[in-house]
């Protein structure tokens, strides 16, 4: 009904040499009531008509305020990147635009890290040395200095992010976690009033494959109970969030790892009352083998759906929030020339939509910087997924709404808007045909704000100007706000 009243045409002008694909966010902003009709492109004779209905009466899920969060790999401490860059003002500004969020510092190298406050670490500038030092194949420990730790904490504070730090679970004595280094870190942090949330270990079900060591789920559960007791000794950390066990993604075929779902259920039998959320890692594909088409195939994007279901099924009776504590497009550091391009936005936006829809509370993007899947390049300039994340933060609120009628190829999600009395719809076109989307279920309104993001799939530049172009469809406060922030950034 409302569809006929409010159609906005997108002129479909193309930039670059391949704009077959679109990521679109369209938004309805209202005063009191609302309607939204999204319109991608109308051209040619064959049109894929999609009719979706948004059910606004009931909120299906409420995600964490910090739903979209950021990861920083522990290898960035090891290789001296933190030492050299964490105090950059530009980095603080860019990260701050993604607040509120967690800053998770973890990864394979978390289980190699020892906190040595007075260590005087000299970082080699030779890439060869770092490659030997900061890889999982190197089983020797490395030191995190006081300066690194202070830098990380101050960075998180200045960017208004909440630090989530992954402690080393491979400091062990007689097959038990040895907490003596954690005590040093806690004492140091407590004296400086640092607010921190915690993890213990990284992908423990793959320890045998990565480090040649096995820590069974039940044993890890006892280690977590010990950590909870240790945190309870500090009034400041008694209420800290502790999440675990950070198992790897469920896979369909048996692999080098122990099954993450079996591992998780063994762990939960022991540690369910010590943790605040169940955490696991998720990637769609192998970064070394990924192809362009993987990023836009519905059956690849749907992998996440059965993975979430598999993890839920192994929670047997435990009702804790679920976090994707490390997640990105492709594992092994991301896919070169794909995971940092415009096309990566399809996986990222679909993940944000699907995870929230299925009840995941927090999604931690690997990574803010470092690897092919980073949000910022090595010079700390924003990549397309950073822009997408900023837009998401500005527009998408915590309440998840049901959308009926979306298809495998025209994927649409809906949340309450970040701003009051509004609904946000976002989605993407993976279809080979131009798609006309008609949205119903929303009462009539006079204000609709639309953002259409479209680009050469291989673009590595700032999100294309189409976003700004559509901003003048309706001049609203939100739009001004976003433009203002963009201008601020250009002055960095
Ligand atoms: C780590 O610190 C300890 C104690 O200061 C020192 O003995 C050791 O050599 C350091 N290790 C590395 C790899 O720098
Ligand atoms: C492991 O890293 C240390 C520095 O932390 C380095 O001295 C050593 O050569 C590396 N070992 C291997 C096998 O690469
Ligand atoms: C834990 O490790 C520390 C340092 O390596 C060691 O001094 C201590 O004896 C260990 N604790 C236990 C209970 O073995
Ligand atoms: C941590 O602080 C407590 C209380 O001040 C002290 O008893 C303990 O020895 C300290 N532990 C370490 C490892 O520094
Ligand atoms: C939760 O942990 C307790 C021990 O703390 C255990 O007795 C109980 O069976 C666990 N619940 C589930 C559903 O695993
Ligand atoms: C959706 O993408 C296809 C190519 O994948 C393109 O031909 C079509 O025009 C797009 N639809 C819209 C509405 O832009
Ligand atoms: C956007 O602004 C330009 C320049 O002011 C104007 O020509 C154009 O019609 C506007 N577009 C819309 C949809 O209002």
UniProtKB/TrEMBL annotation:
<protein>
    <recommendedName>
        <fullName>Heparanase</fullName>
    </recommendedName>
</protein>
<keyword id="KW-0812">Transmembrane</keyword>
<dbReference type="InterPro" id="IPR017853">
    <property type="entry name" value="GH"/>
</dbReference>
<keyword id="KW-1133">Transmembrane helix</keyword>
<keyword id="KW-0472">Membrane</keyword>
<dbReference type="GO" id="GO:0016020">
    <property type="term" value="C:membrane"/>
</dbReference>
<dbReference type="InterPro" id="IPR005199">
    <property type="entry name" value="Glyco_hydro_79"/>
</dbReference>
<dbReference type="GO" id="GO:0031012">
    <property type="term" value="C:extracellular matrix"/>
</dbReference>
<dbReference type="GO" id="GO:0016798">
    <property type="term" value="F:hydrolase activity, acting on glycosyl bonds"/>
</dbReference>
<comment type="similarity">
    <text>Belongs to the glycosyl hydrolase 79 family.</text>
</comment>
<dbReference type="GO" id="GO:0005615">
    <property type="term" value="C:extracellular space"/>
</dbReference>
<dbReference type="Pfam" id="PF03662">
    <property type="entry name" value="Glyco_hydro_79n"/>
</dbReference>
<feature type="transmembrane region" description="Helical">
    <location>
        <begin position="21"/>
        <end position="43"/>
    </location>
</feature>
